[in-house]
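Posting for a labmate who doesn't have an account.
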Amino acid sequence: MAIRVNLDRILLDRRMSLTELAEKVGITLANLSILKTGKARAIRFSTLEALCRELDCQPADLLEYEPEEQPLANAAE
Protein backbone atom coordinates (compact mmCIF):
# COMPACT_ATOMS: atom_id res chain seq x y z
CA MET A 1 0.00 0.00 0.00
CA ALA A 2 1.22 3.50 -0.76
CA ILE A 3 0.20 4.95 2.62
CA ARG A 4 2.64 4.37 5.46
CA VAL A 5 1.63 4.80 9.11
CA ASN A 6 4.35 6.30 11.31
CA LEU A 7 2.67 5.52 14.61
CA ASP A 8 5.59 3.50 15.95
CA ARG A 9 8.02 6.39 15.44
CA ILE A 10 5.69 8.88 17.13
CA LEU A 11 5.08 6.55 20.07
CA LEU A 12 8.82 6.16 20.50
CA ASP A 13 9.31 9.95 20.39
CA ARG A 14 6.54 10.42 22.99
CA ARG A 15 7.78 7.51 25.14
CA MET A 16 4.26 6.11 25.11
CA SER A 17 3.17 2.49 24.81
CA LEU A 18 0.57 1.24 22.38
CA THR A 19 -1.52 0.10 25.36
CA GLU A 20 -1.42 3.54 26.94
CA LEU A 21 -2.44 5.21 23.67
CA ALA A 22 -5.28 2.73 23.14
CA GLU A 23 -6.67 3.56 26.60
CA LYS A 24 -6.40 7.32 26.03
CA VAL A 25 -7.99 7.20 22.56
CA GLY A 26 -10.65 4.66 23.50
CA ILE A 27 -10.00 2.06 20.81
CA THR A 28 -8.98 -1.54 21.24
CA LEU A 29 -5.36 -2.52 21.38
CA ALA A 30 -5.99 -4.94 18.50
CA ASN A 31 -7.34 -2.19 16.22
CA LEU A 32 -4.52 0.16 17.13
CA SER A 33 -2.01 -2.61 16.43
CA ILE A 34 -3.54 -3.18 12.99
CA LEU A 35 -3.12 0.51 12.27
CA LYS A 36 0.46 0.56 13.59
CA THR A 37 1.55 -2.37 11.44
CA GLY A 38 0.09 -0.81 8.29
CA LYS A 39 -2.53 -3.52 7.82
CA ALA A 40 -5.51 -1.17 8.23
CA ARG A 41 -7.49 -0.49 5.08
CA ALA A 42 -9.24 2.61 6.45
CA ILE A 43 -9.29 5.00 9.41
CA ARG A 44 -12.18 7.08 10.67
CA PHE A 45 -11.59 10.81 10.91
CA SER A 46 -12.75 10.67 14.53
CA THR A 47 -10.00 8.11 15.27
CA LEU A 48 -7.42 10.19 13.43
CA GLU A 49 -8.54 13.25 15.37
CA ALA A 50 -8.24 11.41 18.70
CA LEU A 51 -4.77 10.12 17.81
CA CYS A 52 -3.60 13.60 16.85
CA ARG A 53 -5.06 15.06 20.03
CA GLU A 54 -3.40 12.51 22.33
CA LEU A 55 -0.08 12.50 20.46
CA ASP A 56 -0.05 16.28 19.93
CA CYS A 57 0.64 15.91 16.22
CA GLN A 58 -0.80 16.55 12.77
CA PRO A 59 -2.34 13.89 10.48
CA ALA A 60 0.68 14.23 8.18
CA ASP A 61 2.90 13.19 11.10
CA LEU A 62 1.00 9.90 11.30
CA LEU A 63 0.36 9.20 7.61
CA GLU A 64 2.82 9.38 4.75
CA TYR A 65 2.27 8.80 1.04
CA GLU A 66 4.92 6.68 -0.62
CA PRO A 67 4.19 6.01 -4.31
CA GLU A 68 4.43 2.38 -5.28
CA GLU A 69 6.99 1.61 -7.94
CA GLN A 70 5.38 1.02 -11.31
CA PRO A 71 6.84 -1.58 -13.65
CA LEU A 72 8.65 -0.05 -16.59
CA ALA A 73 6.70 -0.11 -19.85
CA ASN A 74 7.99 -2.41 -22.54
CA ALA A 75 10.70 -0.45 -24.38
CA ALA A 76 9.68 -2.04 -27.72
CA GLU A 77 6.27 -0.33 -27.71
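Reply:
Got it, the C-alpha coordinates are right above this. Helices lie at 7-14, 18-25, 29-36, 45-55, 59-62.
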